[in-house]
What does this fold into?
Amino acid sequence: MHNTKNSPKVSVVIPSYNKKVELLACLKSVQNNYYPNLEVIIVLNGCVDGSESAVREQFPTYKTILIKEGLGSAEATNVGIKHVSKDSDYLFLLDDDTVLEAKTIYELVHAINDKKNYGAACAKVVYYESPNTVQWAGASVGLLTGINYMNSGPDDGRFDKSIDTEGGIGGTGIIKMNVVKKIGYYYDKAYYYYYEDPDYAMRIIKAGYKIRYVPTAKILHRTPLLSKSEWKKRWFERAYWVARNKIIFMRKHSKFFPLFVLIYPAWLALYTYQCIRYFSFRAMLNFYHGIIDGFRWSLFDYKYININKHEG
It folds into this structure.
């Protein structure tokens, strides 16, 4: 695996939006990975913070794509996927606020390379600010309730077993290109932002493949979620997308969607309570707006993307 000639080619796609410091640290960690056969594609999504010049100067061999007008995270990722080489064996979708340990890419490829029934693999994600705390070690979305489940907690050995999972590929995982060609190259841009990752994971599973959680592949994630106040702020800021895209995801993937609709008032009551409790009435209105748009999409725009043509 350490020989470039015999190592499967991995194309790393990293969308970024005005996070120059984090992006450069991410790229440095990719460069320091001892996996020998990499292609790196950076999508600068409306960046005005000097990211372009810094990336081109420090990482001149990487493909750098500049989008002058900011797109949603799903579409920005799709722009990068369009530039993946046709001879690539794996697609690695990586977030710009992550840092890889030196063996991460090797461990991900090694875990599933000779296993035909596995289509993707995801890493153990720990907090950059608290590396002994696992943010998630595999993830899933409840297909009755729509609740997001993550295996998280102290990194004390409980997450050191490799298991099958239902999510976790977006931003931290690799997908075999033969699987990508089968299920469609691109994220569903209907999401714009949020839930595009679980959607792509479900497409992999529906195509008959498994996703493997690989604890020996570790990624450090820079995120403010350890702060309760920052967590609440982000939760309220994403009110529209949380409401809208949860409904879209459930419409596309859950056979229990009618039951989900029946229990949805519980979500509405919970979010309304939290908004009133923290005097975030704008978030409450955005949440209601997201509900309306989510159900409107489910009734009138429902479709399942399957883009198999590689525009690259």
